[in-house]
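#onboarding

Welcome to the new folks! Below is a worked example of what a typical request in this channel looks like: someone posts a single protein sequence, and someone else replies with the predicted structure as tokens. Don't worry about understanding the tokens yet, we'll cover that in week two.

Example request:
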Amino acid sequence: MENKKGTQLIIETSKGNITVELYDDTPTHRDNFIKLAHDGFYEGTLFHRVIKNFMIQGGDPDSKGAPAGKQLGMGDTGYTLPAEFVYPKHFHKKGVLSAARQGDEVNPERRSSGCQFYIVTGQIYTPAQLTSMEQQLNQMRLKTAFDSLVRQHMKEIYKIRKSGDTDSLQQLQDRLIAEAHAQTANEPPFKFTDEQKEAYTTIGGTPHLDNQYTVFGEVIEGLEIVDTIQQVKTSRADRPEEDVIIRKVSVVE
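Example response:
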């Protein structure tokens, strides 16, 4: 099913049609989405989670015919997919199709849901906001390295704390901070690419999700339908008060 332009599918919804193109360099997600479409898996499911200026999410099999007020988002196929991060080539600009997943605390490999997906709407950022985000991400990298070192020295830390030796505790902290700086010094600082900056300052997106969730396609027609869906009234659980139904997902032959 591969072709030069990538496989295209039409997501027919109660608000109109959305055409997406799947990326060939995320083949596991591409083939899985095509299979589910051929099997009619998505017929009757809902866009069950809609957050304005963020994303619209669908594909939960439990959403078929779900009564009003039912909590949704936990349904799945019984399997997950390995992450396919093709970053920074594929990033969370407005209109991309990405795989939902469980959080890092229970899913450290960031494996994707077998069926749930979302389409990014996001927001537009200023260059200054992106610069600030770069700084925050670099600081977070340092904190992550420090926290890892702390976990490795927990027995020693507990022993020093028990002894009440605050000077030794401060010395150990200073040493671990220095080690964290040394570890991260050899890594190039995080910076958005020119393509990311162009997208995030013009059409927008959700840059904080980059390299966290697998991006495996993008909307090529019907982005106005996505915008219509993100405007619908929702409950506190982010479920649209009036169901937004996925009637069919079909491959463009």
